[in-house]
TrEMBL record:
<feature type="active site" description="Proton donor">
    <location>
        <position position="131"/>
    </location>
</feature>
<protein>
    <recommendedName>
        <fullName>Alkyl hydroperoxide reductase AhpD</fullName>
        <ecNumber>1.11.1.28</ecNumber>
    </recommendedName>
</protein>
<dbReference type="Pfam" id="PF02627">
    <property type="entry name" value="CMD"/>
</dbReference>
<dbReference type="InterPro" id="IPR003779">
    <property type="entry name" value="CMD-like"/>
</dbReference>
<comment type="similarity">
    <text>Belongs to the AhpD family.</text>
</comment>
<comment type="function">
    <text>Antioxidant protein with alkyl hydroperoxidase activity. Required for the reduction of the AhpC active site cysteine residues and for the regeneration of the AhpC enzyme activity.</text>
</comment>
<keyword id="KW-0049">Antioxidant</keyword>
<feature type="active site" description="Cysteine sulfenic acid (-SOH) intermediate">
    <location>
        <position position="134"/>
    </location>
</feature>
<dbReference type="InterPro" id="IPR029032">
    <property type="entry name" value="AhpD-like"/>
</dbReference>
<feature type="disulfide bond">
    <location>
        <begin position="131"/>
        <end position="134"/>
    </location>
</feature>
<dbReference type="InterPro" id="IPR004674">
    <property type="entry name" value="AhpD"/>
</dbReference>
<keyword id="KW-0560">Oxidoreductase</keyword>
<keyword id="KW-1015">Disulfide bond</keyword>
<comment type="subunit">
    <text>Homotrimer.</text>
</comment>
<keyword id="KW-0575">Peroxidase</keyword>
<feature type="domain" description="Carboxymuconolactone decarboxylase-like">
    <location>
        <begin position="99"/>
        <end position="175"/>
    </location>
</feature>
<dbReference type="InterPro" id="IPR004675">
    <property type="entry name" value="AhpD_core"/>
</dbReference>
Length: 178
């Protein structure tokens, strides 16, 4: 199970996605932990069993147990936060903005890996989750921590490509079942 398996499974019409996936993995400016944690967190955010299986199998060989757990934690906490904060924003009533969330989020303060890596993973998951408020918050923390805009963009590109892979493979499976 691997990224190569995902690339092989993509149909011809998704050649761009296949090429983008390959180049993101082979030309990354991110550390190996940042890259594979982002890939894993994004795979989990897609909810695609196939993408999760392929990415997690390869990531397990590369990431430490702590990093593997933290990437899973980023996907989990942002699944909650993206819905909550996106909803508070979209309602449009500023009163909600002043109300405390009262949701436990301790993993953000103590993720078990470098905070910068966890923030990158949270940003990428938020791109998939479509939460502008979370994207703004995590991007600001990353920039204040010294991460370049190019590396932040790379995290978002990983999210976009992994999400596209999941969309193509899931839709092809659904079409095959019709």
């Amino acid at each position: 199970m691997s990224i190569d398996n995902l690339k092989s499974a993509l149909p011809d019409f998704a050649k761009d996605i296949k090429l983008n996936l390959g180049s993101l993995v082979t030309t990354s400016s991110l550390s190996e932990q940042q890259l594979w944690g982002t890939l894993l967190a994004c795979a989990l955010a897609t909810r695609s069993a196939r993408v999760i299986a392929e990415v997690s199998a390869e990531a397990a060989d590369i990431l430490s147990a702590e990093a593997f757990r933290a990437a899973r934690g980023a996907a989990a906490i942002m699944a909650m936060n993206n819905v909550y904060y996106r909803s508070m924003h979209l309602i449009g009533d500023e009163t909600y903005e002043t109300m405390p969330a009262k949701l436990r989020m301790t993993i953000i303060g103590n993720p078990g890996v470098e905070k910068l890596d966890f923030e990158l993973w949270s940003l990428a998951v938020s791109a998939i989750g479509g939460c502008g408020r979370c994207l703004e918050s995590h991007e600001r923390v990353l920039r204040e921590s010294g991460m370049s805009r190019e590396q932040i963009q790379e995290g978002i590109k990983i999210a976009a490509v992994v999400n596209a892979v999941a969309t193509v493979l899931e839709s092809e499976a659904a079409l095959a079942a019709v």
